[in-house]
Amino acid sequence: MKKLEEILKTWEPVIGLEIHAELTTLNTKMFCGCKLEFGAAPNTHTCPVCLGLPGALPVPNRAAIESIVLAGLATNCDIEKHSMFYRKNYMYPDMAKNFQTTQGPIAFCMRGHLDLDVDGANADERYGLADLKPGESADNITRTEDGYVAHVGITRIHMEEDAGKMVHIGGGEGRIAGATHSLVDYNRAGTPLIELVTEPDLRTPEEARLFMQKLRQIYLAIGISDCSMEEGSLRCDGNVSLRRRGTTELGTKTELKNMNSFKNLHDGLLYEICRQAQVLEEGGIIYQETRHWDPTAKRTIVMRVKESADDYRLFPEPDLAPYDLSDEFIESVRAKLPELPDDKAARFQQEFGLSAYDARHLVEHRSTAQFFEACMSDAERELGSAAAKLAKPLANLAINDVSGWLNANPDAVLDESPLTPNRAVQLVQLVADGTISSKQGKEVFAAVIEEDADPKAIVEDRGMQQVSDTGAIEAVVDAVLAENPDKVEQYQGGKTGLIGFFVGQCMKRMQGKGNPQIINELLANKLDA
Ligand code: ADP
Ligand code: MG
Ligand code: ZN
After folding, report:
1. Is 197 touching ligand 1 by the criterion CB < 6 Å?
2. CB burial class (10 A; 0-12, 13-18, 19+) of residue 62?
3. pLDDT, tens digit, 9 for 90 and up, residues 277-307
């Protein structure tokens, strides 16, 4: 198959996402009082309502309505005061009622948007970016210094309920194919679920991944879901089609299921774009179908041909009264909105003088953003206004070292780790004042976590103090130059790359403790003299 870069010259990919989030932070289900609990013994959290027994009447969970309004406000949606629930009819054993309670044409939240910051290598997938200068706009993007901002429309966020869970016994990998029998667990049936649908505004797999990531950050910040992609509390379907560059009519789309990680979402869409391009270029047609991304085989396979909306015979739910949300209710929810990631990034830039890039990456994870702030207040307590110059190194520590460590140790909890804010401040200070080099800083970082010790003590115990005494370094530099007259001659004859050799020799004599900046300066002075 052709590479994306080649395909983009002829075809424009169009992507829209449907993202389901379970409201896991609520105590009870959507229409009954059953407890919400992941991993409980099968069928221990059920009742006549969520089992769909005849005559049982649903009662909506007010806290779930608050959660979806919060989600709508956090994603710039209009909150619809008047909306209602519908029945989406289908028969499958995981839904004992034989219909899903969901919303119709008008959802609680309509017409929102998110702006995505795409930078660095992530921006490379966007076609035609090089033609724009910073500040210039085309389609839904605006070029920035290090990438672009994409404006992505949100069609709606509606409220619905989850189905139960089927377990197929006897087949391979829990699949239904080859199974001898199936079991059903209704604990999940009736779990409050919100589904966000985007406009077909995304153009690259990377934008899709970033949208999902940003939405996850927002949902975590407002506390409506634990957003675990492994446990399925955050799920994403990717819709994708191609159209000839320069045309506006949408092509036929396929829908990818099983996008249970950011990487799967990106890779699945990328594959599907390449597959569709090949089909179209060979004169074939794309069928509207649901496909499954198989990350191991690295391909998508057909699951089913799309059913039409009519098949569900959607009709208003007669057991639930239409909603009439009051202004007071909406305002009381708005008052609960915490600081959102974008606002936090803007504040970090303003308050601590961080670059837009650093601020944006710092707020990607709530724990690292919180850690950075705790470090800054620690530094300010001890150093007053002098703390300002530690903002950049502390941000780097949080974005690179701390995030890297958390990624490598998914079970680690930063708050309970040996790396306290106070130790982090000590560490960056030791580097900032030249006591240790930045390379040694990495070693001390690892040692703090490993040994649960203070950076100062580690540096002392290991005798790591960097030698910054110019006199002492000069003596070493002189000795190295005197020992290598041939290399000095070559350097002065134009082989300036030899500087690395001289630095290395000086470092070796000083057991790696010489201040590299001073060594470089002294060498340059003497060699270029
Ligand atoms: P369906 O009825 O198949 O669920 P919708 O119109 O509800 O389709 O759209 C579902 C998602 O697919 C939305 O995110 C939408 O933006 C996206 N979408 C719709 N048409 C296309 C298309 N031709 N190509 C890519 N994405 C599309
Ligand atoms: Mg749909
Ligand atoms: Zn129940």
Report:
1. yes
2. exposed
3. 999 999 999 999 999 998 888 998 888 776 6
